Protein 1
Amino acid sequence: MKLRYTFGGDEHIFVEVSEEMSLEAFFISLSMTKAVKAAEIKGVTEICPANASFQIKFNPDDIKPQDLLLEIQKLEEQTSTAEASLNTRIIEIPVYYQDPWTHETLLRFRDRHQNPKGSDLEFAARSNGYPSVEKFIEAHSGSPWFVSMVGFVSGLPFLYQMVERSKQIQVPKYLRPRTDTPKLSVGYGGCFSCIYSVRGAGGYQLFGITPMPIFDPQQKVSYLQEFMVFFKPGDIVKWKPIDRKEYDRILAELAAETFTPKIKKAAFSLDEFNKDIQGTNKKLEDILYS
Amino acid sequence: MSVKILQPGLATTVQDLGRPGYYHLGIPLSGAMDRFALRVANLLVGNHETAAGLEAVFMGPTLEFTSDAIVAITGATMPAKLDGVAKPGWTSFAVKAGQKLSFDYLRAGARLYIAVSGGINTPLALGSRSTYAIGALGGFQGRALQAGDVLLLGQQGKQDKQDKQDKQDKGKILGRSVPENMRRIASASAATSLRVLPGLYWHRITKESGEHFFEDTWKVAPEADRMGYRFKGGRPLTFVDRKPPFGAGSDPSNITDACYPYGSLQVPGGSEPIVLHRDAVSGGGYFMLGTVISADMDLIGQLQPNVAVKFVKVDMEEALHARAKRKALLEKIRALFV
């Protein structure tokens, strides 16, 4: 892939790995940002990997923009041979699809939607050729998902579906963004799923909600005591459809501080994945549920 | 050693110079929108420039002091009154325990900065006291101030640890004033120029649209806050034809969700440009045509809704020159208060 370098004003270098999303582009972005970090270049203040691009913020009082550009371009050669693999973790995220809270919200913003009469899930199921919402939920929760970016707002993960491209779900965003989205809504836009970490504006279609906090500035949630943000790029997620009863049970466990998310260590290799997608996913699930 | 909020104003928050290092997780820099104004306010009261102060937008708060302090007001022109007696802006003055500080209506600019000797001492969150309200992080309980809140004052003054020198220093600090030609507030009459370095996804728009963007006069829309400023009134942009890249979305203004630089200019649907500011969303799926240069970011924080703005095309050399000029101005002010 031919990387495209451009300046974001006098304080940022923006690098597009590919216009299209792919795990190949994600891994190039990841190895480039790792290399920039390891190079400890003077003046670099923020290193932000994204789905198929990345961004470096710098202080131009410490390094000339053109000099930094050359330094980063030099790293391109040495990372081109980097292996696209990760030691990561697979996490089960419970999702209450068609919950009352996102449903109330999507009704409130129907005037901004392509399908004013139905729900977001009905729209997504139909536009992806699924006969029913239930079949669509099966597809959404049937494969693992890859966290290819963290951002937008505090700790929000963008998740990429780990299936053949022909099977990937694609849904347009709202015609105009909502001004409100319930905290922990599971959304969808373009080819990405997301979990809204906080309440606020959003343009992704609303599918459901998870009871599991993923951002806690107070750091009271047991598994967020070490750091307030749960996700990092490279994490792998498996959605688990739950009903209201289980949703309430998890909330009660969270309140009693007895809830622990199901997390297992897992290795991921892009080559192996590309050679055998179903086999790789099966292995990941076996690890999660072993 | 505290300040009580009697009336909060519209959206008054605790801010310092921000929280770098977490943008890759969607936690933005935050901090004063007009960093110059906060730095100068701190210098005027003898604080470190990094001390936390208050940022008030469009409307000032009413504060009651429980102890003696030195205070300075910078940024927007919103005349201050101490127990009803007018106090000048950009000048430090003494406040006695029990006195009340209030503000008249806004005359120019948008954001007022209040520095208090010792600084506002809310707990540090990821290394900063800045309020990031969207993430309920930092500041006072992660939110804008409300009536009844009590803010502790800290020891972010330069001489706080040298008790013996205190009295002598207080004499040196009181009455410090920034000469009028060194104050920076947005002009209320002419259109404000915001300098832009084209780039990022500039190639997505047609040549004509690129020219229109810089020719047209834009106005600040009502949706203007710490996350970003929206502009309207210019001609809609037209896009270069393309087959939507996988993952980007079907709208011609969509891209595969990417990082957003601070100051970047995104134009969803090609209609209303948005400049991201200190509480920026760190990324998303809209193309950006360029970035407001760092030297002009403070100025955006002083724009009121409906004021006219012209975007002015510059190159990197001009951007760096403007940055150096800003830095030199600050150096001059620092030199006044050594």
Protein 2
Amino acid sequence: MDIEETAVKARAFSYFRAATIDQALDAHARAGDDARFIAGGQSLVPALSLRLQAPRLLIDITHIDEMRGIRREGGYLRIGALTRHCEMLSEPLIAEFAPLLHAAAPFVAHRAIRNRGTFGGSVALADPASEFPAMTLALDAEIEIAGATGTRRVKADDFFLDLFETALQPGELITAIYIPLFKADQRFAFDELARRRGDYALVGCGMLATFAGERIDDIRISFFSVSNTPTRVRGAEATLIGSSLDAERIAAAQAALEGDLAPPDSDEVSPAMRLHLARVLLGRVLGRLGEGA
Amino acid sequence: MSGFDETLLDDADETVRVRFIVNGRKVACEVAPRETLVDCLRNTLELTGTHAGCEMGACGACLVQLDGRAVHSCLMFAVQADGAAINTIEGLTESGVIADLQAEFHRRNALQCGFCTPGMLVNAHELLLQVAQPSREEIRDALSGNYCRCTGYEAIVDAIDAVAKARSEGGGAT
């Protein structure tokens, strides 16, 4: 049998390494949009190898300097789209101003994947089981998008539309993600439940809260692996705002999840099981938030 | 604006020339854009110590060092590595930087069929460069992306643990 029929190999494509954002956008447009941008490639390369995708052109964006770097800009931390997952662990600016991302990073895949995978790539793919897209929701992040008509910024709340579907239009590129700077009166917490470390989570959750003393003034809680998109649980959030974190409030937030989440059926975990796990996890992570974690 | 040449689209499987530094030596080779780095290393450069296992980033057998970091060579195309410095298990062996790890794997039978061993060593090497004294839990966590289908994990963790302790005491494990 011909090896082509059996091997796990991508269909033939052309390769172009872009030096600037404009070059990358131009190449995409001129390939008639039958092109894919590649950054870390940790999800795209398997998809190509399995021939789930077969573009005629691959545009390598990893050498575009404008998409690198982490810096403060006004009240935000601007994280270049090409920032690698491992940098979320090593960069002091992340630990200081976006500590929720720092806390979530060790849970993202495995070390060698984190060495190549990029923040912008993870958000662009919008895998509902991934940690970082969900954390952009909890952090009220804004996503900077470059396209043929210029650059725009989209709130994370408006970015994730459906399964692997986002506000990105064909040929558009995420160039950076803006995270509001972490403040002294805020606390964060993160955890996930997975069968093995590095596996996709059965359910995961991260949160950012603003406190006035022990009273919660504002809280954003985002779940992943519970739906077709990363999901904010607004009912649970509402039960917590204006109160301190006691056992009764935590129980009320857990109860509210039933209205917030409608997990899809899957071979692996039933909807009821996933909802149960989400409740357990929410209680655990809120408990940690109460301790000031 | 320079850059994209549309005639490129007509030549989807035409080979292109890439240059990188493999195990300290400058190398140039002709690759089709769809050729993965692991296939280039094994088939073109005949460096067969890097193993192609699952070819989708799950098993860790294909780990190499790319610009000093462990990466899956099945999860990138060789053209993406143009200009990079790559160390394979052959290079790490020649330079002696993992000699103590290799000796300890040998001594403790931390391999059975050996298919996963190159990836385990590349990963363990990076772990010990970043964390001088990892706990057993940290070692297990670091190895979570490396499958050993003979299930020899216990001896592998033992070996890495022993080398970490020996290195921090200033001596070798052997």
